[in-house]
Amino acid sequence: MTQRSISLNSLQRQLIRQTQAWALQEGFDPGYTRELRHAAILANHARYLERIPTYQRFAREEAIGRLNDIEPIKQQLMFPDDLFKSYDQQWLDNHDFSRMNIWLSQIFTGAANVDVSGIETIDAWVDRLADAGTRIVYSSGTSGNFSFVPRDPANWALFRISSSAYLAPLLINHRIGTPLQRLLVGLSCRLLKPETFARLSRDVGMREYDAFFLDFEHGRTGNQTLEQEIAPLFRRHYFLYETTLSSTVLRLVARGWKTDIEREQLHALQEVVVERKEQNYGTLIERIQASTAAGQKIFIFGTTHQFKELSDLILARNETLAMKEGSIILFGGGWKSFTGDHVSRDCLIPLMTKAFNLPEDRIIEGYSMTEINAFTLRCNFGRFHIPPFIEPVIFDEQLQVADGNDLVGVFGFLDALATAYPGFIISGDKVHFVNDECECGLSGPAVTKIGRATFREVKGCGGIMASLSA
Amino acid sequence: MESICQHNDLLIENEGVVRVPFLIKGRLVLPPELTRREIEAAFAATPYETRHLELADAQVIREPIIERRTMQRTSEYQYQVLPRVNPLELIETDIDKLANGPYTITVKAVLDLLKAVSDVLQNNEVTTKRIRDLTRHTSDHPDLYIDGAFASLMYGLNVDAARSIIDNELAIWQIPGRHFLEGWVEVPTEVMPGLTSFLAQMLPGISLHESATPAFIRAMPTRQLHITSGNAPEVPWISALRLILSKSVGAIKLPFGATLSGAMLAVAAMAAAPNHPLIQNLSIVYWPGGDEDIESVLCAPGMFDRIVVWGSPEAVASIQARAPFTKTICFNPRYGVSLIGKEAFEENLDVVAFAAAADVMIYSQKACTSSYVQYVEGTETQVKAYAKCLAKILHQWDDIAPTFVPPEVRGQVKRMKRGKYLSADWLLNMEEGEFASGVVCMDSEFDIRDHPRSRLVVVRHMASLIDALCYLHSGVSTVGVYPEIRRHDLRDLIAARGVSNILPLGQCERVFPAMPHDGMIVLAELVDWKNG
């Protein structure tokens, strides 16, 4: 490990500690954190310059070398999120994964040089990369064009540590914790290193909960990756679809089939998600009831449109789920499906509180994307608070950086934890951005309303699941 | 016409405010009086991007003024004050009144109406020029295009062209359409009475009849709702013309961006023939597209016989979902492409690129026939040379017809360049450091949803034009082909894939009376064909 990477690593760990302090509202120093964040972003810039060919190319075009200020990055070196789909779709159509390797190496600090002989599916390629230590998370949009975001083992470990280290205190301190839990988490955060805290959190887990994921058991989308990470924390966990959502079939959903084999694959998927939908939901409901009868609290994770479907189904049966106090719902993925169906928050939340018999504050909305190493949660005052290891950048429609603490624009970010790929990203989301004290107690930047920017397709796990259900 | 405008202070700018009337069933409905101060105070309380609000009994539209020399948005606005819409006023449920009134008039009376409106417009040049200039203040389109569009509006009112449309679009049995539109027409056919009539002869007693009565067909006028789009200023006029030529009644919803030219038609109609049965049953109005309160009433079963929707996928989907029981005619969002054969490199490449650029420049790619993607057969070097040539010609177009490039288009070009299409060759024409037009040359597949629809041509290198056929489908309205011999070779293969127009390169904007539109003979869709 070089001196610079030790230094970057150290900066990142300090940032995670500060993020914990921010989540706990104990000892958070915004000025110091800003310095850490900027230093880490600049160190990442130097790292990308050295190791990522595409980044090198654009930096050269912009005549930018090493920097000691992040402003030129914001102005000139941020990438749209579809950088991660800048490959030729025909390479996937033709199973040309050697070309995919070359492409991936252009946007990645590592060399994607796995042996691709015999590989005929995206999943097999992703698995081969995983065997070599490169984790690929993908998402899809209306077009069926996948974004592939690569992380090396160090970046992956950082992602896991940071998520556990600040999300647990955030949830327990602000949303679901008892006074004792808050005390224990606060103490642990102060006394333990982030990685130790993360490991301990995973070891202790949430054994009083059984988890239910409204998703496929196997797959590599952003949500599935998250689910596979957190599933072992619970006493038991269940998936709505106890099968695999392969990337090949997911791509067929948007792009259509061309061969008889593809038609069969698509048909098999439709059988699971359309023809057996009610049966699958019915089984899930029965399992929730069984877990509740066994004295377990319930954790359910899914997308907006699925919760609408499930709520409608429960209420159509003239039932409500009498879950144990303390149960939680976590949902996200946007309010619009690929097919354009829109669910409004004002409609969905009352429906969910009624169907699941939960108070509104136990129904938590999350916001994230595959290209970021953070997961944000909507507070009780309607804000998705951005953790301090992320530097938000808001753009106007012309993609020029906008200044201010109350803006409507395209959401971009400099992710201090993105070490393996260019983490200076312009998303496809148009947001209302605010930067001040929130009534919930958290401070700093946050976004409220989230929609898609002009010309950007609906994408993400929410859109995928809604379209499969349509 | 001018006296109506002057007397009522209509379609005249006063401190940046223009009062815009509606035509509602033969009545000119005036907006209330609002001062600029009142309007600005109302908009001050809304987000900056607000373009429409309701104030007192008015609707107010706010459009940024575009400085014509630089084609940049200024911080100034032009406001339009319009009446509010009561959807119930646009509906006609007294069918007997229609059957005994407008549906009985002659085709000559229809053509006389067009002539009268055309005369009024030609005799009121001051008014039409003023409305054209008011349109220019805020239009995205270059002045040259606005001027041309206003001139072409007159062409739409040409009586000979109108007669040809009626006679050809409604022609069946080799009988001119006017006869079917005016009444019942006996057609020379052998009528089969049907199985039951035949079987009935086996019963004792009265026989039905010896032979069936002759066959008569009529093209019955209908009640029509036209929801128009603003990508080209003529669209509301085309819809209104079709409504009138089908001797029908109903309402035209003007789009944002074409309210002034629509109101011009309303005032001209009232000046020309206020008591004409068709004007007495015609409405020309505006409301913001998608307004649930208005559209749910208008789309309810039985309110109209035909709904015509132009525009965005959202607009089309929204109306289709709301009006499942009404026959809906959709002019879906489509786009054009070009196929350029290798022969281009054996001849004068400039001439070919010039023709291809003409197809790109149809309303600067806002029109659904304009060319977005060009598939070029040749070597990589040849295709790059073609792209260069095309970029140069587009730059010349930028000089003679500078257009407003919306900020979101510039943002999208930046995204494409540094995102999904970062490996492509970008040949952009810049104006003060920002995108004005250009060509992007790529080998990889292009996702049409990424296209910014503003003078950007995607050039794709093809080993053979046949390879481009897989990219043609019903979303492609028009294919311009070069050279002619290749067009004739490929025409059926292209048409079979759902494309509506397969035309010579450089001629994709052409029109003629009674031409099919989006795969339809539209007037024949708008009338209701009856047996009687």
Could you explain the architecture of this structure?
The complex is a heterodimer of chains A (470) and B (532). Chain A has helices spanning 3-24, 30-51, 53-61, 71-76, 89-93, 97-106, 122-131, 153-176, 179-191, 194-204, 222-230, 247-255, 260-275, 277-293, 304-316, 345-356, 461-469, and strands spanning 79-80, 135-140, 146-151, 206-218, 234-244, 297-303, 328-332, 363-367, 376-377, 384-385, 390-395, 401-402, 406-415, 424-435, 445-452. Chain A is of the alpha/beta class and 470 residues long. In chain A, the strands form 3 sheets. In chain A, strands 1, 10, 11, 12, 13, 14 and 15 form a 7-stranded mixed beta sheet that branches. In chain A, β6 (297-303), α15 and β7 form a beta-alpha-beta unit. In chain A, α1 runs parallel beside α8, α8 (153-176) runs antiparallel to α9 and α8 (153-176) crosses α10. The radius of gyration of chain A is 22 Å and the shape is globular. In chain A, 50% of the residues are buried. Mean pLDDT of chain A is 86; it is low at 1-5 and 461-470. In chain B, strands 4-3-12-11-10-13-14 form a 7-stranded mixed beta sheet, with helices on both faces. Chain B is an alpha/beta fold and 532 residues long. In chain B, 48% of the residues are buried. Chain B has 18 helices and 22 strands. Chain B has helices spanning 2-8, 36-44, 95-100, 107-122, 125-138, 143-156, 159-169, 177-182, 195-200, 235-245, 259-272, 292-298, 313-322, 349-360, 380-400, 407-418, 484-495, 522-526; strands spanning 13-14, 17-19, 22-24, 27-29, 52-55, 58-67, 72-83, 185-187, 215-220, 223-227, 249-253, 282-285, 306-310, 327-331, 335-340, 371-377, 425-431, 434-442, 456-462, 476-482, 501-504, 528-531. The model of chain B has no long low-confidence stretch (mean pLDDT 93). The A-B interface holds A 54, 58, 79-83, 85-90, 142-143, 145, 340, 395-399, 408, 410, 426, 453-455, 457 and B 47, 49, 313-314, 317, 406-408, 410-412, 414-415, 418-423, 434, 443-445, 447, 449-450, 452.
